[in-house]
Each structure stands twice: as structure tokens, then as C-alpha cells.
């Protein structure tokens, strides 16, 4: 008796057959993440991000199917090869609406190489049919998501207490294409592909 042929579909490496929420980012090195972790306390109602999930987003693309993810992974190759660069973290702040903070972050000092890389990642998304968010690019490292009941005065006090944050220069030699999966305990990020600067 003849065996049936195996008709499993080809699965692009960027998706492994899943529908994904995708973004590009610079991963915060462990020694800097450990420094940031020392600031992740003292605010009831803050859901602090795990150290291995700390990053600087370059572009957020949202939901992507296999074809789009594979096209994006290919387009991002064009963003490579401009050279490594250094960044510095500086200060803290919050994003929110209706006078309610929802996210605490560490700021990133202005950097032309970072701005150019983010623009190249945005262009890659557009070429792959995944136009990124339209809001202005504000580089940061998300430290915590805040529950709705968090006392705004406590948020202000936390920011005042940590606003002198300043890191030494951090060298980046790669950036990554990441997937984001929402779970009950928050988003989980997975590196799908890595690219050299």
C-alpha cells in the first residue's frame, strides 16, 4: 500500500503558522534592565513589566497574517546595515487620557540614528501592507501598565522620585521583529527575527 504524501503547508519562519500582533524594537540589555527594575516599585496598582520584556519600540504593526508577516520580515532586511549606535535613557513619564495615567515609561534621549531606524521600520510595514500607527514617534521603555484605580497623586510622586533617571550610553547592534500575545497576566513578547544595524 502506498503512503499518502505529506501536504503540510510551507510556514514562513516569521509566523510559524500563527496570526500575530507584530512590532519592531530594540531589546534593552540585561544590565540596563536590572537598573530599571530597581525603579519598579513603590506604586500600588502598577503592573510592572518583566525585565526580559523591556524594549524600545520602533514601529507597531498590529495584526498580521502569514503573508504579511513574511513580507514584513523580508522588507525589514532593507533597514539593516546602517551601523550600530548608542542611546541614553533620560527621565520618566506617563501616557494616558482623560487626566488618567495608564502607562509609566523611561524616556529615551533624542537620537537621529534611532529616528531614522524607526522611519525605515515604518516604511517596511507600509511596503508589506501593514501601515504602522499614525501617532508621532516618542521612543520610550514601558515600565508599567497602571490599573484604573491607581491614585494620580501617587503616580505624580513616583515620577518626581524617579525623574532624574539617566543611563550611561547603551550600544545597540541589532533590532528585532517581535510578536505580542495577550494573556491574562499581560502581553508576552517573542523575538521572531533579528536584524543587524
TrEMBL record:
Stated EC number for the protein is 3.1.4.58
- Tell me the superkingdom of the source: Bacteria
Record key words, sorted? Hydrolase
- Annotated motif HXTX 2, positions: 140-143
Q: Where is this motif: HXTX 1?
A: 55-58
Database matches in Pfam families: 2_5_RNA_ligase2
Kindly state which reaction or reactions the protein catalyses.
a 3'-end 2',3'-cyclophospho-ribonucleotide-RNA + H2O = a 3'-end 2'-phospho-ribonucleotide-RNA + H(+)
The entry sums up its family as follows:
Belongs to the 2H phosphoesterase superfamily. ThpR family.
Function noted in UniProt: Hydrolyzes RNA 2',3'-cyclic phosphodiester to an RNA 2'-phosphomonoester.
Name of the protein in its database record: RNA 2',3'-cyclic phosphodiesterase
Q: Which organism is the protein's source?
A: Brevundimonas terrae
Amino acid at each position: 500500500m502506498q503512503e499518502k504524501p505529506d501536504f503540510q503547508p510551507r510556514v514562513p519562519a516569521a509566523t510559524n503558522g500563527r496570526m500575530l500582533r507584530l512590532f519592531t524594537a530594540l531589546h534593552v540589555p540585561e544590565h540596563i534592565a536590572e537598573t530599571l527594575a530597581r525603579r519598579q516599585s513603590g506604586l500600588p496598582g502598577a503592573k510592572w513589566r518583566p525585565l526580559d520584556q523591556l524594549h524600545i519600540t520602533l514601529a507597531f504593526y498590529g495584526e498580521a497574517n502569514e503573508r504579511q508577516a513574511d513580507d514584513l520580515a523580508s522588507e525589514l532586511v532593507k533597514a539593516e546595515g546602517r551601523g550600530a549606535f548608542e542611546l541614553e535613557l533620560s527621565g520618566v513619564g506617563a501616557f494616558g487620557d482623560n487626566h488618567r495615567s495608564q502607562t509609566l515609561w523611561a524616556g529615551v534621549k533624542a537620537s537621529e540614528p534611532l529616528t531614522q531606524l524607526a522611519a525605515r521600520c515604518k516604511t517596511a510595514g507600509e511596503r508589506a501592507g501593514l501601515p504602522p500607527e499614525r501617532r508621532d514617534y516618542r521612543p520610550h521603555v514601558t515600565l508599567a501598565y497602571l490599573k484604573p484605580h491607581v491614585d494620580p497623586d501617587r503616580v505624580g510622586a513616583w515620577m518626581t522620585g524617579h525623574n532624574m533617571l539617566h543611563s550611561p550610553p547603551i550600544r545597540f547592534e541589532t533590532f528585532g521583529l517581535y510578536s505580542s500575545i495577550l494573556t491574562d497576566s499581560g502581553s508576552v513578547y517573542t523575538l521572531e527575527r533579528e536584524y543587524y544595524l
